[in-house]
Amino acid sequence: MAAWSEIFRSGGQSVSRPPVFKRWVLDGYDPIINLPYNHQDQFIERFENQTFKERFFSFSSTAISKLKATANSECNTQKISSLQAVIALLWRCITRARCLPHDCEITCSLMFSTRARLNPPLSDDYFGNPVHIVGGKATVGDLLAHGLGWAAFRLHEAVINHDDKAIKEEVESWIKCPVIYKRIHLFGANLVRAASSPRFDMYGCEFGLGKALAVRSGCTNKCDGKITMHPGREGGGSMDVEVCLLPEYMKNIQADQELMSYLMID
Fold first, then answer.
1. 81-84: long-range contacts (C-beta < 8 A, 24 or more apart)?
2. DSSP type of residue 128
3. How many CB atoms are located within 10 Å of the residue 176 CB?
4. Does Ligase count among this protein's keywords (predicted)?
5. Is the Cβ–Cβ distance between 43 and 37 less than 8 Å?
6. What distance lies between CA 41 and its chain's CA centroid?
7. CATH number of 50-204+212-263
């Protein structure tokens, strides 16, 4: 979007950062992969009309700073990022809202770019979406008994452990047994999944109508437990988070005291 916006502002001239179209391929493998399907119905999901509630929660830059400081202080570290702290908070709050048994195992997953983690790294201008999904796991009892920092550190460990070796092993495993994942594999009552990133400069993209009033993610890929991260309109490190839940869970999370205590910080 940033490149399209630059093209618009320059009147169709060349962009300052041309996209890199050369494809990354795992050494020793053909870039063309045959999928093990004979008919489209084997991998295409039909739309199922389900009722979800969506709500945007806005975290001020001050609230984000406090969240990050709290998470790091509880773990006696400085390694937990603002994003990991916010996702950890929502992992705890969504789990509470679902009222799951304390021995139930739950997973919170997040996507991250593999560009800088590969050796050699991919260019920041690599055209495409080279992302992987990692997750922190815990029982409901452990997640809620421990603090914010404990949950955030589970996510931090999952991210830092997914290095060049882990990425290439995962890609190789998929090449040997390729599959197109369906939503049933990606979402569920025991899952919270974070997508997008507040690092995307959504409000800096200009197409002749001025600064956007808000960022929305559209109607696709809506499932119980999905959280979509956006930069806050006021900037400065603020975040707007879109949360999608079943109606009964949304009602519960809107009354969650831990969540509301951070949303009230200006």
1. 81/156, 82/237, 82/239, 83/110, 83/197, 83/198, 83/229, 84/152, 84/155, 84/156, 84/159
2. S
3. 8
4. no
5. yes
6. 28
7. 3.30.559.10
For residue 209, what pLDDT is reported? 85
Q: Give the C-alpha separation, 218 to 199, whole Å.
A: 19
Strands (E), the chain: 53-59, 105-113, 131-139, 191-196, 226-231, 239-245
Domain boundaries, given as residue ranges, for the chain: 50-204+212-263
Contact 192, 91 (CB under 8 A): yes
Q: Which amino acid is at 135?
A: G
Q: Residue 46 pLDDT more than 80?
A: no
What are 203-230's pLDDT values in tens digits?
A: 888 888 888 888 888 777 788 999 999 9
**SS3 of residue 42 by DSSP:** helix
CA distances (Å), origin 43, targets 38, 108, 175, 180, 193: 10, 25, 17, 6, 21
**How is residue 69 written in tokens?**
């400081």
pTM, two decimals, is 0.91
Q: In 56-163, which residue ranges form alpha helices assigned H by DSSP?
A: 61-75, 82-98, 140-145, 148-160
| Residue 219 burial class via C-beta count within 10 angstroms: exposed 0-12, middle 13-18, buried 19 and up | exposed
**pLDDT per residue over 138-173, tens digit each?**
999 999 999 999 999 999 999 999 999 999 999 999
Written as six digits, the tokens of 92 are 């705890």
Cα(63)–Cα(59) distance, integer angstroms: 6
What tokens does 84 get? Answer: 């990991």
Using only the alpha carbons of the chain, give its radius of gyration.
Answer: 20
